[in-house]
Fold this protein.
Amino acid sequence: METGLAVTDDEIQQVLSESAFARVYNFKLQSFGSGQCTLMIPFRKDLERPGGIVAGTIFMTAADVAMWLAIMTLLGKSQVAVTAELNTTFLSSAKQEDVKCTARILKLGKTLIYGVAECSNQADKLLTHHTIIYVRK
């Protein structure tokens, strides 16, 4: 763990494993640092949409969860911040493959937190780009 982070590896793993909405997707914490987080989303046949591609909701949820955890690296796990806006651009599709999603905070304000997330496949092909605004409560 980097020094100066507001959460430990154990704490962030615990938050991820205890969050029922995130467990549905079987997200795996790949890495995290100051204001950033990368999740691995293992491919699951039950999360495919017709045509054999990974459903778009998977990318959006991964971006939101990765940003939520990235925020915790700076504010700790007890600080409440909620999604106010999530914009997604789909650039390519994933077919029966694992996906990784990296979120990073660009501006941590007193009220608003602005960040971006990107999802890519294992060959680093960019699949989605997200802009995300969180509101601190």
Notes: The mean pLDDT is 95. The chain has one domain: 9-136. Strands lie at 28-33, 36-41, 48-49, 53-54, 81-90, 99-108, 112-121, 126-136.
